Amino acid sequence: ETGVTQSPTHLIKTRGQQVTLRCSSQSGHNTVSWYQQALGQGPQFIFQYYREEENGRGNFPPRFSGLQFPNYSSELNVNALELDDSALYLCASGVGLAGLEQYFGPGTRLTVT
Amino acid sequence: QQQVKQSPQSLIVQKGGISIINCAYENTAFDYFPWYQQFPGKGPALLIAIRPDVSEKKEGRFTISFNKSAKQFSLHIMDSQPGDSATYFCAASRFYLGSNYKLTFGKGTLLTVNP
């Protein structure tokens, strides 16, 4: 077990709605990254937060946003959901900018209908 | 543009055999190459990783071979077991202090180890 938890496990939303996914990292892991994994594909980097500030972003539109909190929890928010947003959303935590190892949670399966 | 190419897409190996998965990368600035193992319904789990200053790293039955000049690296699973049946992802990242180190993943290899 990585000590990284995510909630909810599964979620079904309708196109156009908004969704918030949550992640809880291990104590001391002050870096969190979010990834989107479409069926049969490798995870794709959405963005990373370090000490509660966005530290890098992949090729995702602004309707994907995030927050990181001092208690090692974080959120991924997606507005105006599209059918293509259906995927497994993974968060990964690590220690600082010098720590290369990232530990993934089990993911949230989002289905947009 | 796919920066990390992984092959094969699927692999079937007999119990006790050697599983070999290959990856090639394009960005010479990549300096960290991990392999992840993912079981259905689970998140990827870090298996083994290598930096480009060494050509091989071994941990138990898992070995990474790294060829910097060819921009290739591979995962070897010795004495493959049915419990190794999973999807394996190679990844690469580029790190320099003060910047992000996003992982760029390959598309994955579905490994099936027959008993």
Task: Walk me through this protein's architecture.
The complex is a heterodimer of chains A (113) and B (115). Chain A is an all-beta fold and 113 residues long. Chain A is 0% helix and 51% strand. Chain A contains no helices and eleven strands. In chain A, the strands form two sheets. In chain A, strands 2, 4, 5, 6, 9, 10 and 11 form a seven-stranded mixed β-sheet that branches. In chain A, strands 1-3-8-7 form a four-stranded antiparallel β-sheet, with no helix packed on it. Chain B contains no helices and eleven strands. Chain B is globular, with a radius of gyration of 14 Å. In chain B, the strands form two sheets. In chain B, strands 2, 4, 5, 9, 10 and 11 form a six-stranded mixed β-sheet that branches. Chain B has a five-stranded antiparallel β-sheet with strand order 1-3-8-7-6, with no helix packed on it. In chain B, β6 (56-59) and β7 form a beta hairpin. Chain A binds chain B through residues 2, 4, 6, 33, 35, 40-45, 48, 50, 55-56, 58, 90, 92, 97-98, 100-107, and chain B through 4, 6, 32, 34, 36, 41-46, 49, 89, 91, 93, 95, 97-108.
For the structure shown, list the relevant keywords.
heterodimer; A: 113 residues; mainly beta; 7-stranded mixed sheet; 4-stranded antiparallel sheet; 51% strand; B: 115 residues; 11 strands; globular
